[in-house]
Amino acid sequence: MTNGLTDRLAELDSQLKELEAEIISLAVGGQGYDELASKILALRDERDAVSKEIATDANMKQRIDEMEDFVKGHDAIVEYSEVLVRRLIEKVTVFEKNIVIDFKSGVSVAVEI
Fold first, then answer.
1. Structural contact between residues 63 and 105, judged by C-beta atoms closer than 8 angstroms
2. Can you list the pairs that 55-60 forms with residues at least 24 positions away whose Cβ atoms lie under 8 Å?
3. Which helix (H) or strand (E) holds 94?
Protein backbone atom coordinates (compact mmCIF):
# COMPACT_ATOMS: atom_id res chain seq x y z
CA MET A 1 0.00 0.00 0.00
CA THR A 2 2.91 2.35 0.53
CA ASN A 3 3.77 2.20 -3.21
CA GLY A 4 7.23 3.73 -3.15
CA LEU A 5 6.60 6.01 -0.19
CA THR A 6 9.43 4.46 1.78
CA ASP A 7 11.76 5.08 -1.18
CA ARG A 8 10.57 8.70 -1.33
CA LEU A 9 11.16 9.03 2.42
CA ALA A 10 14.74 7.77 2.05
CA GLU A 11 15.29 10.16 -0.86
CA LEU A 12 14.00 13.09 1.20
CA ASP A 13 16.25 12.12 4.11
CA SER A 14 19.23 12.04 1.78
CA GLN A 15 18.39 15.44 0.30
CA LEU A 16 17.95 16.89 3.77
CA LYS A 17 21.38 15.65 4.88
CA GLU A 18 23.02 17.16 1.81
CA LEU A 19 21.27 20.50 2.27
CA GLU A 20 22.02 20.61 5.98
CA ALA A 21 25.71 20.04 5.26
CA GLU A 22 25.59 22.75 2.59
CA ILE A 23 23.83 25.22 4.87
CA ILE A 24 26.59 24.90 7.43
CA SER A 25 29.19 25.92 4.85
CA LEU A 26 26.97 28.78 3.63
CA ALA A 27 26.36 30.04 7.15
CA VAL A 28 30.08 30.58 7.48
CA GLY A 29 30.23 32.46 4.16
CA GLY A 30 26.92 34.28 4.71
CA GLN A 31 25.64 33.77 1.15
CA GLY A 32 22.40 32.09 0.04
CA TYR A 33 21.57 31.02 3.56
CA ASP A 34 17.89 32.09 3.50
CA GLU A 35 17.10 30.32 0.24
CA LEU A 36 18.72 27.09 1.41
CA ALA A 37 16.97 27.28 4.77
CA SER A 38 13.64 27.61 2.94
CA LYS A 39 14.43 24.52 0.86
CA ILE A 40 15.28 22.57 4.00
CA LEU A 41 12.02 23.57 5.67
CA ALA A 42 10.03 22.62 2.57
CA LEU A 43 11.76 19.22 2.42
CA ARG A 44 11.08 18.64 6.11
CA ASP A 45 7.40 19.42 5.56
CA GLU A 46 7.25 17.03 2.60
CA ARG A 47 9.06 14.37 4.64
CA ASP A 48 6.53 14.75 7.46
CA ALA A 49 3.65 14.44 4.99
CA VAL A 50 5.14 11.26 3.49
CA SER A 51 5.71 9.81 6.97
CA LYS A 52 2.09 10.50 7.90
CA GLU A 53 0.88 8.87 4.69
CA ILE A 54 2.99 5.77 5.41
CA ALA A 55 1.53 5.59 8.92
CA THR A 56 -2.01 6.00 7.57
CA ASP A 57 -1.45 3.26 4.98
CA ALA A 58 -0.02 0.95 7.65
CA ASN A 59 -3.03 1.60 9.88
CA MET A 60 -5.45 0.93 7.01
CA LYS A 61 -3.65 -2.32 6.15
CA GLN A 62 -3.79 -3.42 9.78
CA ARG A 63 -7.54 -2.74 9.98
CA ILE A 64 -8.17 -4.62 6.74
CA ASP A 65 -6.07 -7.57 7.98
CA GLU A 66 -8.03 -7.63 11.26
CA MET A 67 -11.32 -7.62 9.37
CA GLU A 68 -10.09 -10.39 7.08
CA ASP A 69 -8.94 -12.51 10.05
CA PHE A 70 -12.29 -12.04 11.76
CA VAL A 71 -14.22 -13.12 8.66
CA LYS A 72 -11.92 -16.10 8.02
CA GLY A 73 -12.43 -17.21 11.62
CA HIS A 74 -16.10 -17.83 10.92
CA ASP A 75 -17.70 -20.48 8.78
CA ALA A 76 -19.66 -19.55 5.69
CA ILE A 77 -22.14 -16.83 6.50
CA VAL A 78 -25.61 -18.05 5.56
CA GLU A 79 -27.78 -15.85 7.73
CA TYR A 80 -27.80 -12.36 9.20
CA SER A 81 -25.54 -11.93 12.20
CA GLU A 82 -25.99 -8.84 14.35
CA VAL A 83 -22.58 -9.43 15.94
CA LEU A 84 -20.86 -9.62 12.58
CA VAL A 85 -22.60 -6.50 11.25
CA ARG A 86 -21.77 -4.45 14.34
CA ARG A 87 -18.15 -5.63 14.26
CA LEU A 88 -17.49 -4.95 10.56
CA ILE A 89 -19.85 -2.31 9.19
CA GLU A 90 -19.77 1.40 9.98
CA LYS A 91 -22.83 2.38 7.94
CA VAL A 92 -25.01 1.39 5.00
CA THR A 93 -26.35 4.06 2.65
CA VAL A 94 -29.20 3.16 0.32
CA PHE A 95 -29.50 5.08 -2.95
CA GLU A 96 -31.99 4.68 -5.78
CA LYS A 97 -29.75 2.40 -7.86
CA ASN A 98 -27.18 1.09 -5.40
CA ILE A 99 -26.24 0.49 -1.79
CA VAL A 100 -22.94 1.74 -0.36
CA ILE A 101 -21.50 -0.23 2.54
CA ASP A 102 -18.84 1.56 4.61
CA PHE A 103 -16.76 -0.88 6.65
CA LYS A 104 -15.05 0.12 9.87
CA SER A 105 -11.74 -0.58 8.18
CA GLY A 106 -12.32 2.42 5.93
CA VAL A 107 -13.18 0.41 2.82
CA SER A 108 -16.39 1.26 0.96
CA VAL A 109 -18.23 -1.08 -1.38
CA ALA A 110 -21.04 -0.10 -3.73
CA VAL A 111 -23.52 -2.81 -4.71
CA GLU A 112 -26.03 -2.22 -7.50
CA ILE A 113 -29.62 -3.09 -6.68
1. yes
2. 57/1, 57/2, 57/5, 58/1, 58/2, 60/1, 60/105, 60/106
3. strand 89-94
> Residue 82: pLDDT above 70?
yes
Torsion-angle region of 106 (φ positive above 0: left; ψ -120 to 50: alpha; else: beta): left
Side-chain-side CA neighbours of 2 within 13 Å: the count stands at: 17
HSE (side-chain half, CA atoms, 13 Å) at 88: 20
Which strands form 108-112's sheet, in the order they lie side by side?
89-94, 98-103, 108-112
- CB neighbours (10 Å) of residue 88? 17
pTM: 0.53
- Distance between first and last Cα of the chain: 31
Kindly report the number of other CB atoms within 10 A of residue 105's CB atom: 19
Mean pLDDT of the region 87-94? 90
List the one residue out of 97, 102, 103 whose CA is nearest residue 63: 103
